[in-house]
């Protein structure tokens, strides 16, 4: 079993670990010859499946194992994020799977080359940080299933997440003024006419933000357009989900990473967010998929 | 039923649609502002209590917050601060002259809603007066959107619609019947002291004295070292006969006392010998944010010890209309001329009842 790679974009990796660690502390990291996958699941229910091209994060990437050259690890996101943060100014970073010298337990070793700041000392400094991890067996990860959702009633490109996040923070602050059980409950809704709404219903204040002139993505040829729920319903009819505002705020931390976001709403059931890390024309289709369930009314 | 004047206004405003439709019932109050920042900054100065009372009249809005019945803060927000300001008095309100509409709401929630425009938290009062002007900097508070207020009379919520870029946010704030807030009257004919100074000086003085060792702060006049004329207890501002006394703030406690003496650069416009009253320090500090934000301060005290601290907050030029009005300013005392006039200026007035001085 061998894994070694150079980190191509420390910045992207950093934003990724930041977004994911907002959701949960541990991630299942699946390394294969085709792609890199991070999977996290919060106790509160939000799950993220991040499928990234190797090039999105790495270069000079080598992965070998007896299991079709697939390695499954359980990685502490906080530790990984902190290690990456400390090498934000590094000229080079190498990540490899190895064993700790003292006890032989598996670690991800992040070795960073920092160019010397001094004019007198030529060369550079190497710093290695150890991130403890756990190797997962193929039978363990088989139990981790990507959530299944029915065809969405509405799918829409969301407005810039930075703005949605700013308003969500205000809604959450307004929730603190409420004493009712319903505080932090946000109503997210959208229709096939390019409208997206976010609402907070409190005792003393009701707030609703509404966006219009958004795009509804066209279904791919592979999807059954004729009978798809999004094509048979009225264009202006809203589909909605109820989510916890604090959980929604955590999801929106992906704002720095996202190039475009499609929200798929299964009315009163679930919200699926596709957060693309590239522009539409880019052949690289690296995407983070967020799954959130709707609270019952 | 709207008044005749209102109907006329409706007719002109709806001239294009009036032929087809019945004129829609006009809301009691609608106002649009493209300067939500200043509104936020001024109202934030009153955020020492969460409940506020809002009075609408033809000249603007009067927002009042009360603390412990012995301290009041009032913001005068002129209609000129809005792009449009329409008040249609209900027939019952027209009985009062001039007509007004009053309701109460949660100021904390209103401020939070206004912040949907202005996502970053502005600098705190504790950061000091010298940096306070930074809250007007566009880098900290966003602008460019519009805020529209709508109110339909008792029992209806206050609607606040914020539009910016591609999104529109509608806030529906619960309103309450106003409590009877009796104004703390300042006896203008019995003024014991009237001083104008830079607000920053007052702010610095209060922060200097804020050592948590005393509960009260005392305002007093001390005769200047040059002898004055005892036969003239009250002097007009221009009295050449005697030098003005020194104006001091004093705190004293078991561990000692502290004094701030304002120099001669402050303008003492009126005084009575021996003026001396004390106030609860924590209530004075309620005005701290206004002190930090304002350019000018007027300090007035009457013979009963009622203290008025009045602050002028200048706008950032992002306002809308350029016209002068007597209205609200006129109600704030006759020395507005001395405070200077500038468009997009807002005024805040804090009133305090004196406490028995500790010995």
TrEMBL record, chain A:
Record-linked InterPro entries: HUS1 (IPR016580), HUS1/Mec3 (IPR007150)
Subcellular location per the Swiss-Prot or TrEMBL entry: Nucleus
A Pfam match: Hus1
Amino-acid biosynthesis is among the record's keywords: no
Highest taxon of source: Eukaryota
Keywords associated with the record: Nucleus
PANTHER family associated with the record: CHECKPOINT PROTEIN, MITOTIC AND DNA DAMAGE CHECKPOINT PROTEIN HUS1
Name this protein carries in UniProt: Checkpoint protein
TrEMBL record, chain B:
Organism listed in the record: Pyronema omphalodes (strain CBS 100304) (Pyronema confluens)
Cross-referenced Gene3D superfamilies: 3.70.10.10
Keyword hit for Nucleus: yes
Span list, region Disordered: 224-246, 314-338
Composition-biased stretches (Basic and acidic residues): 318-327
Biased composition (Pro residues): 233-243
Protein name, per record: Similar to DNA damage checkpoint control protein rad1 acc. no. P22193
Listed GO biological process terms: DNA damage checkpoint signaling; DNA repair
Similarity comment: Belongs to the rad1 family.
Assigned keywords, A-Z: DNA damage, DNA repair, Nucleus
Matching Pfam families: Rad1
GO cellular component annotations of the record: checkpoint clamp complex
Compartments it resides in: Nucleus
């Amino acid at each position: 079993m061998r894994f070694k790679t150079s980190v191509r974009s420390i910045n992207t990796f950093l934003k990724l670990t930041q977004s994911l660690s907002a959701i949960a502390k541990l991630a299942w990291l699946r390394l294969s010859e085709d792609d890199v996958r991070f999977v996290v699941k919060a106790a509160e229910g939000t799950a993220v499946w991040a499928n990234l091209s190797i090039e999105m994060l790495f270069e000079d990437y080598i992965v070998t194992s007896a299991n079709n050259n697939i390695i499954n690890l359980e990685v502490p996101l906080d530790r990984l994020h902190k290690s990456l943060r400390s090498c934000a100014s590094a000229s080079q970073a190498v990540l490899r799977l190895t064993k700790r010298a003292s006890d032989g337990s598996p670690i991800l070793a992040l070795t960073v080359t920092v160019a010397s700041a001094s004019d007198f000392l030529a060369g550079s400094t190497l710093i290695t940080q150890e991130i403890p991890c756990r190797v997962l067996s193929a039978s363990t990860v088989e139990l981790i299933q990507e959530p299944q959702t029915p065809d969405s009633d509405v799918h829409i490109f969301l407005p810039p997440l930075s703005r949605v996040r700013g308003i969500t923070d205000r809604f959450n602050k307004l929730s603190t003024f409420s004493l009712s059980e319903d505080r932090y409950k946000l109503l997210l809704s959208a229709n096939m006419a390019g409208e997206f709404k976010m609402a907070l219903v409190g005792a003393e204040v009701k707030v609703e933000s509404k966006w219009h002139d958004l795009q509804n993505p066209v279904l791919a040829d592979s999807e059954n357009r004729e009978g798809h729920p999004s094509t048979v319903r009225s264009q202006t009819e809203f589909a909605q989900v109820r989510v916890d505002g604090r959980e929604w705020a955590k999801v929106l931390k992906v704002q720095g990473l996202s190039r475009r976001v499609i929200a798929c709403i299964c009315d009163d059931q679930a919200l699926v967010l596709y957060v693309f890390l590239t522009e539409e024309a880019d052949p690289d289709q690296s995407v983070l998929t967020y799954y959130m369930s709707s609270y019952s009314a | 039923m709207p008044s005749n004047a209102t109907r006329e206004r409706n007719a002109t405003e709806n001239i294009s649609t009036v032929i087809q439709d019945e004129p829609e019932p006009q809301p009691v109050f609608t106002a649009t502002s493209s300067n939500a920042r200043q509104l936020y900054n001024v109202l934030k100065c009153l955020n020492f209590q969460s409940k506020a009372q809002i009075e609408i009249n033809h000249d603007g809005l009067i927002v009042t917050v009360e603390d412990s019945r012995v301290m009041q803060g009032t913001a005068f927000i002129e209609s000129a601060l809005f792009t449009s300001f329409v008040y249609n008095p209900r027939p019952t309100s027209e009985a009062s002259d001039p007509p007004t509409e009053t309701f109460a709401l949660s100021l904390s929630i209103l401020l939070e809603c206004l912040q949907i425009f202005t996502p970053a938290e502005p600098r705190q009062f504790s950061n000091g007066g010298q940096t306070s002007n930074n809250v007007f900097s566009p880098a900290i508070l966003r602008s460019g959107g519009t805020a529209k207020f709508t109110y339909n009379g008792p029992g209806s919520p206050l609607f606040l619609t914020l539009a910016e870029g591609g999104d529109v946010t509608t806030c529906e704030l619960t309103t309450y019947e106003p409590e009877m807030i009796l104004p703390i009257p300042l006896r203008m004919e019995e003024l014991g002291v009237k001083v104008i100074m830079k607000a920053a000086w007052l702010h610095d003085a209060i922060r200097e004295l804020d050592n948590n060792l005393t509960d009260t702060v005392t305002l007093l006049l001390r005769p200047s070292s040059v002898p004055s004329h005892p036969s003239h207890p009250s002097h007009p501002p221009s009295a050449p006969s005697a030098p003005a006394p020194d104006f001091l703030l004093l705190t004293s406690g078991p561990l000692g006392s502290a004094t701030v003496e304002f120099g001669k650069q402050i303008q003492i416009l009126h005084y009575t010998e021996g003026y001396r009253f004390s106030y609860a320090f924590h209530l004075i500090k309620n005005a701290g944010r206004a002190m930090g934000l304002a350019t000018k301060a007027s300090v007035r005290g009457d013979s009963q010890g009622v203290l008025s601290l009045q602050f002028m907050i200048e706008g950032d030029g992002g306002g809308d209309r350029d016209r002068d009005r007597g209205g609200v300013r006129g109600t704030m005392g006759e020395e507005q001329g001395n405070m200077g006039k500038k468009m997009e200026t807002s005024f805040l007035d804090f009133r305090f009842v004196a406490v028995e001085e500790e010995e």
